[in-house]
Amino acid sequence: AKAVEPNVESLSVDAVDKQSTIQRTDALRSTIDSIATKANEADLIQQLEAIDQHRQQREFWQKSEQAFALLLEADALHDTLDRLNRLRDELGDLENAMSRAQTQRELQLTEQRLTRHEQRISQAYNELAVMGLAGRQDALLCIKPMPSEFYLPEFLYELYRKYAAHFQYDWTILREPLEPTEPLLVRLSGPY
Length: 192
Known about the structure:
Elements: H1 15-38, H2 41-55, H3 64-100, H4 104-130, H5 132-136, E1 138-143, H6 152-166, E2 170-175, E3 184-189
Antiparallel strand pairs: 1-3, 2-3
């Protein structure tokens, strides 16, 4: 008699595999909650509500530059809150997919999605919890000297410095050149 190989697709999911996946999703939920806490989610919601109330006032629109800056700030707040909600929603979808998994293949696919989601959560942690809203809008400038265009670094330095002053961005020199051949490193921070 021939030995019949079992069909891996039709086997039920091993409870141990499901349990380890449940533990991973629980850990990810805790990480998302930690990100929300470090990003001050409740405070962000209050700030957004205050901006929305301020927008309803007629004088808000009379100062167009200030209105524009506040609208950009509101967009950044919306982006952060939406990102936190998307992380939670995707995790909920993954938990549902895991609970419905009937075969080893379905569980493997869910675990692959879970691994990709772990990477998104890790990136969100760095951007939202570590850097925060201020870090979201940083621009790093490296102004390198060019032998044939000796005036260009000074011109670019002044151009970006005036740009930062005009829009009230923070201007921080991170590395000042000690030699004429060394680059200048500058950070701009502001709601652009």
